[in-house]
Design a protein that fits this description.
Radius of gyration: 29 Å
Largest sheet: 2 strands, antiparallel
Shape: globular
Strand order of the largest sheet: 1-2
Strand content: under 5%
Number of strands: 2
Length: 473
């Protein structure tokens, strides 16, 4: 009988039977998949096979990739990578983002995909946009992309470090950082602003960076990472390679201290658009914490090249941190390597900076400099003279006790700019420039270099806001 001779009721019945058959087939398929999924979950728990080895188990996705692509997944991923490069060239941003995510579905444990494309979105793609708001969105996309990589590779300190670096560097040290920091502060996406250690919501990029750096450092120190004994149970096609957190990786282990130092430094300037700086005991507490972070870094054992089994500690290079009695026990080799690693990381400078800034006179001097600059830019030259004079008197006595910080080139530029403005304010106020002008030796270099502005201070980079009210004493 031809289908043309079937009645409408018969055709409807036939179609309904096919729907039942399809539904039954789907139920059977998922029923068959369920024991397999449970078996994988048990294996993962018994063998301690976390995301660092076999990744987040996605049974359905695994079967689809296996059935449709098999061993060709690498070829398809390479093609998608080339396609992503082309899409970026023609500014097809939405298709680029979708293609990048497809690559990670095909090869979720190929760490270079996450590292490269997370950096690419946050750095290369973001600069294609003019508005800071658009730049921020792509920085955020790149950072969230890396966070997704961490979820699929939870024993990778590299991806944790890369996530931290986006918060630290791309948001906190870029040309428009004071705007980007405000955008992060106001971001309603609390998940993006959640610290990975204590799970609290933060309003500062450097605090978020510190949390991610700590998580990365903790993973490396505990050796709960890829390249453990569990690798013997796994046959890799593309074996994950870890680069961060090796025993002698000095810069890697210093980053939590750097993040806290940046945070303390930014609190004493208009580093976030529309947010007043903080001085007094609050600022001192931030610098106290920075000193503690550097002290903790000084307690990390690093190897000597000629005696790798003997650890050395950077704290022994700073008299304020070391126990003199313990220092006397060090061998010549230990003294040599301690000094060498301390110089390589500029450890003694960072400790001296925290020691200087945390002193009451240091906080008071910073406040005087800030208020003097506000008055200077507003044309209140007598007010600028008064604040600069007070601040420089405190700063001069303070730096006499901290020669490492005093002689640092960045600090010289910072201090020299204050002296230059103080001198100009005196001239504008019809006052004589004193012969014993503090830090007069810095004037020649600063005047030769021309305009020097702090790119991380909104009050330096933008027109002064007449409605701005400095914080009360």
């Amino acid at each position: 009988m031809s289908t043309a001779s079937l009645s409408p009721n018969s055709m409807a019945t036939s179609a309904r039977y096919r729907q039942y058959a399809y539904a039954l087939g789907i139920v059977v398929l998922f029923g068959a998949m369920w024991p397999y999924s449970e078996r994988l979950a048990r294996l993962k728990q018994e063998k301690d096979l976390g995301e660092a080895t076999i990744g987040q188990i996605d049974t359905g996705g695994f079967l689809v990739k296996l059935a449709l692509l098999g061993g060709a997944r690498g070829i398809v991923a390479n093609y998608c990578w080339l396609q992503a490069i082309n899409l970026q060239k023609v500014h097809e941003w939405d298709r680029l983002e979708a293609t990048v995510h497809l690559i990670t579905k095909l090869q979720p444990h190929f760490l270079m995909v996450w590292t490269w494309q997370g950096w690419n979105l946050a750095y290369n793609v973001s600069v294609e946009w003019d508005a800071p708001e658009d730049k921020y969105e792509w920085i955020k996309k790149g950072t969230k992309f890396l966070q997704e990589g961490v979820r699929k590779n939870e024993k990778s300190p590299d991806l944790m470090y890369d996530t931290a670096w986006n918060y630290y560097n791309k948001i906190g040290i870029s040309d428009e950082s004071f705007i980007l920091r405000r955008l992060l502060r106001d971001d309603p996406d609390e998940k993006f602003r959640t610290d990975p250690i204590d799970h609290s919501v933060k309003d500062d990029n450097f605090l978020l960076a510190m949390g991610w750096f700590r998580r990365s450092v903790g993973m490396a120190q505990d050796q709960e990472r890829i390249a453990t004994r569990m690798e013997a149970l796994i046959e890799y096609v593309d074996k994950p390679t870890q680069h961060k957190g090796r025993p002698g990786d000095l810069a890697f282990f210093s980053m939590p201290a750097h993040a806290q130092t940046r945070y303390a430094d930014r609190k004493e300037k208009a580093s976030t658009l529309g947010v007043s700086p903080t001085f007094g005991e609050v600022a001192r507490a931030k610098w106290d914490k920075a000193l503690k972070e550097w002290s903790a870094y000084g307690d990390i054992p690093f190897p000597m090249h000629n005696h790798p089994e003997i650890p050395i500690y950077l704290k022994n290079s700073v008299p304020a941190l070391r126990d003199p009695r313990e220092f006397q026990k060090l061998s010549k080799d230990e003294v040599y390597w301690t000094s060498r690693w301390a110089v390589q990381t500029n450890f003694r400078y960072w400790v001296d900076k925290a020691l200087t800034e945390r002193e009451p006179d240091g906080v008071r001097a910073r406040r005087s400099f800030y208020e003097g600059t506000r008055a200077y830019k507003a044309g209140d030259f007598p007010g600028a003279v008064r604040n600069y004079r007070e601040g420089l008197a405190l700063w001069q006595k303070l730096l006499e006790r901290h020669p490492l910080y005093r002689d640092d080139e960045l600090n010289k530029q910072d201090t020299g700019l204050i002296v230059k403005r103080y001198k100009n304010a005196l001239i504008q106020s019809l006052e004589d420039v004193p012969e014993d002008l503090p830090f007069a030796n810095l004037l020649e270099a600063i005047e030769r270099d021309g305009v020097n502005l702090d790119p991380f201070d909104a009050s330096e980079m933008l027109t002064p806001n007449p409605e701005f009210v400095p914080p009360s004493h």
